[in-house]
UniProtKB/TrEMBL annotation:
Residues 13-309 form the NADP-dependent oxidoreductase domain. GO terms for molecular function: oxidoreductase activity. This is Aldo/keto reductase. Keywords: Oxidoreductase. It holds the Pfam family Aldo_ket_red. InterPro entries: Aldo-Keto_reductase, NAD(P)_OxRdtase_dom_sf, NADP_OxRdtase_dom. One of its GO terms (cellular component) is cytoplasm. The keyword Protease does not apply.
Amino acid sequence: MKNRFLGKIEVSPIGMGCMAFSHGYGKIPDEAYAVSAIRAALDFGCTFFDTAEAYGEQLYYRGHNEQILGKALENVRDKVVLATKIHFRGTAYKPGDPIYPILKEHLTQSLKNLRTDYVDLYYLHRVNLEMPVDEVAEAFGRLIEEGLIRGWGLSQVSASQLDSFHRVTPVSAVQNLYNMLERDCEKDIFPYCLEHNIGVVPFSPIASGFLSGKITADTTFEKVDDVRVFVPQLSKENIIANQPIIDILNRFAAEKQATPAQITLAWMLHKYPNVVPIPGSKRKERILENLGAWNVTLTDEEFSSLEAALNAVEVHGHRGNVENERSTMKEWKR
């Protein structure tokens, strides 16, 4: 295992997405189990843990996930990298209002939840098109200068949006949707980030579990708080249509004595030196399986063969890597 960098922030090659302990995948485990799973990931070698202030608010409350992570890692703060996110949704913002006080207020609560006095990586969870780019980036830069955060990032952005922010305050990482079924980021996000020393942190790198090979057309999802019911690739017809991709993964998994999920993660680790996926699960054994992907090494020949096989298969269902708080794009405010 060789560590990677998000800007100047050193992390394990695979991180842990913690959202599932608070919402998004049906009934959540009890807090004691969640804490033990996070600590098990740390013991396995994971040093990078991802959360957000919004994780939990659908059925519990804003900050629920941050509090679990804070409880699990408070005593080992110097050994871990913590990432959280601010979402301006619900904020009483009017065009012209100063951004920094809003940002500082949200961060102060996140620090309390996480039981720490700084956050390593603070993301803008989604771009708010009403807020001027320069002022938002400058506000994050001020938090860096004050030592409250080490770096900042953006989630679900286009390359043009990223460039607008990065020109004002250098960005450490981009957290976008990226996996074998969702490869939009290969067009411009990865090239831009490689050129500017920015890390790419794919969420849903196993396509909400589809690429594990464990989801079939007969799989049913929980009706309450399960995001998978909205994922295009997980409709019954697309599960069937995308089966050739699972067949490819099963073949490589058998050859490498690994799981399909591990092959999926090993594929992106081989492809990009600046990628740090954050698979998420509420099951401890699945979390450790995913982290074990950093021990699965593809040769250049194996990677090329896998890439060729994937490129020859049509993908059914598409989400995309750009989501804004407004459905219609408008010219950036500068």
